[in-house]
Every structure is written in structure tokens, then in C-alpha cells.
Amino acid sequence: MADIYSSPPPIVDETTKQDPDEPVWTYRGYKLRSSEFVTAMVHFFRAEIQRANVWRQRLDTTTNWAVVATGATLSIAFSQPNVHHGVIILNTLLVTLFLFIEARRYRYYELWSYRVRLMETDFFAAMLVPPFHPSPEWSESLAENLLAPSFPISMWEAFGRRLRRNYFWIFFILGLSWIGKSWLFPTPPSSIGEFLLRSAVGPVPGEIMLTLGAVYYGFLFLVAIGTVGMTRATGEILPRFGPDNGHDPHESQDKLKDLRNRLYPSHKRKQFMATIITDKAGGVSKRILTELKRGVTALEGKGMYTGKDHSVLMCAVTVTEVHNLKAAVAREDPQAFVIVSPAQEVLGRGFNPLADQ
After folding, report:
1. Dist. CA 169–CA 340, nearest whole Å
2. Domain residue limits at 106
């Protein structure tokens, strides 16, 4: 018998030769080569940037509406002395409506830019620092956002941020214009009583109108100040990680943790606890360990009426893994009994670190 080690090597076409050591992205049953996976992510990244840009342009549209409406209103109000100052009040309410529409659009813009920012910080940034080690949670966070989209910021944060960035000066000019129109036209008042009389709108006395104006602007001021500490907006130029200034990064965060929890709820990934009753505990556990990379805890149980012994498996999974868990159990034991219930919080390996709590 010829020695296989002394036989000449086979002739291989170099144009079709593939590197057997080329890394393959294996994820939940799919096997993609690294080049294929990166290509797919690049196309997805470009699509999300395009969608975010479209909604960013829609934000500029509502701001332009507010500026044009304010300019036209002030031109009419101050060009004709007999025009009532109520037109400025109506324009203020109209600008408030534009601000509400823009805040709602800003939440949609943040939804798309959250995905873009997630890929920038946890995928592409990791590619620039070899070896390539993306964040262990970035794919789960991105997949969950695709399956169950949710706004990353609250309506209050969006309203306050757009108010501070764009609409503050518009409301400031409208407020001064309202007081100036009431005071100067058609002629300056001879007394405070005359000014209050001019400030009236129909049957509503001037004192009430001025009080309502002060309350309204006070409300806008409180919203603008109260939402400063909310930094959920991922589309803004905010760092992925806090600055390293030589101090404990958790020191300042702990001081504001309770306050921020009251201002807006923190986003928690949906987590579930799966209870599996099966007679094939070994096979089911092996599939869960190999396919889902999740730990399994086995308990012994007995049927109440049948008296037959069964194995009870417990496994914590995320929202994107529930379908794969059921499919893995069904392939191994179609007669298994599976219960999936929401979990308030899961701590430990693969989830939130227990040490940080």
C-alpha cells in the first residue's frame, strides 16, 4: 500500500481555490462568510442613513413653516396700525403646533439614527481596532429594534430639544412682538389701565390674557430646562462612552440615577423565561446550548395525575430568541410542553451583569 504522505499533491486551480481558514459568520442557523456579512451590513447601513436623512429634511420643513408664518404675521401686524394684536397670539399657537409636529418627526428621526449610531459604535468602530470584537449586545439590540421598533426618546425630550435648538428664538420674538404691538400701536398708552384694556381679546380681559401669556411662556421655559438632562437622543453628536477624566465613571451617574429614572423610563430589552417539560432533556439541552448559546437548568418533575417522571428545563432568552427556542425544542422533542413568560429582569452571563446592579 502506497504511503499517502509520499503521493504528489493534487493540482488545484488557483482561481477557484478558497481559503479553508476563512472565518464564517454562523448565527442562528445561517452561515455567511465574513465578506458576505459585511456587504449586507454596508447596504443596510446605507439604507438607514438614507432614511434618517429623509426625516432630517422633514424636520427642517416644519422649522421653515414656523419661520415663514412668523415673518408674515409680524409684517401684517406692524405694517397696519389697526390690525389687532390677536393675530400674533394665533401665530404663537400655530408655531406651537409646528413644534409638536416637529417633535413627533424628531422621534422618528431618532428611531432610524439609533440604528445608524449602533452600527457605527459597536460594529464599524470595532472593525478599526483588530482583532474584530463587536459588542456582544449590538446585534441583539439591532435585531430587537427591527422586530419591535420603539422610539428611543420620549415625546418630552423631543419637544424640549427642538424647543431649545430652534423654537426658543421664535417664541422669544413673538412674545416681544405681542407686548410691543399692544403697547405702541396705534399710540403708546397713557397709563397701565389703558394698556390692560388694549391687551383684552374679545370678552377676555387684558389681565387674564397677560396671565395666560405668562403661564404659557413659563410652561415652555420649564419644559426647556427640565429636559436638559435627558440624553437619549442618539442622532446628536454624543459619545458612545463617557469621557475618561480620571474619576470613577459611575460616581456622577449614581447621583443622577434616581432623578433620571423619574424623568423618563429607561429602555429594557424584552426578556423571557422559558419552561420546557420534556422526556428528552439531554437532546433538548444540547440543542439550546449549541444553537442558542444559552444556559439551561434542569429540574426533576412528576405529573400530578399520571405520576410519570419528566424533566423540567429552565432557560432565559431574549425576544429575538423565542422563535428559535421553540424551533429547537420542536426538532428534538415534538411532544414537549413549552411555557414562555415575560421576565421582569434577568441578570448574569449573556444578560445584564450582576456586579453592576
Report:
1. 52
2. 30-226
Last residue of a domain, one of 226, 242, 263: 226
Question: Which domain-ending residue is among 226, 256, 287?
Answer: 226
Q: Is residue 168, in this structure, part of any structural domain at all?
A: yes
What is the distance between the alpha carbons of residues 320 and 143, in angstroms, rounded to a whole number? 7
H or E stretch covering 110: helix 86-119
| Residue of 340, 317, 348 lying closest to 144 (CA atoms) | 317
Mark out the alpha helices in 227-248 (DSSP H runs): none
- Check which CATH number belongs to the domain holding 321 and give it: 3.30.70.120
φ/ψ of residue 27, rounded to 5: -150, 110
Angle formed at CA 40 by CA 39 and CA 43, multiple of 5 degrees? 90
CA pair distance 212, 209, nearest whole angstrom: 5
120 lies in some domain:
yes
**Cross-strand bridge partners of residue 316:** 273
The pLDDT of 277-284, averaged and rounded, is 90
What is the Rg, in whole angstroms, of the alpha carbon atoms belonging to the chain? Answer: 31
Taking a C-beta distance cutoff of 8 angstroms, is the pair 267, 145 a contact?
A: no
CA distance 236 to 172: 24
Report which secondary-structure segment, H or E, holds 87. helix 86-119
Strands (E) across 14-146 are located at 24-27, 30-33
pLDDT digits (tens, 9 = 90+) for 56-106: 899 899 999 999 999 999 999 998 888 888 999 999 999 999 999 999 999
For residues 161 and 285, state if they share a domain.
no
- pLDDT digit string (tens) for 216-246? 999 999 999 988 877 666 655 555 544 443 4
**pTM for this prediction:** 0.66
Structural domains in the chain (count): 2
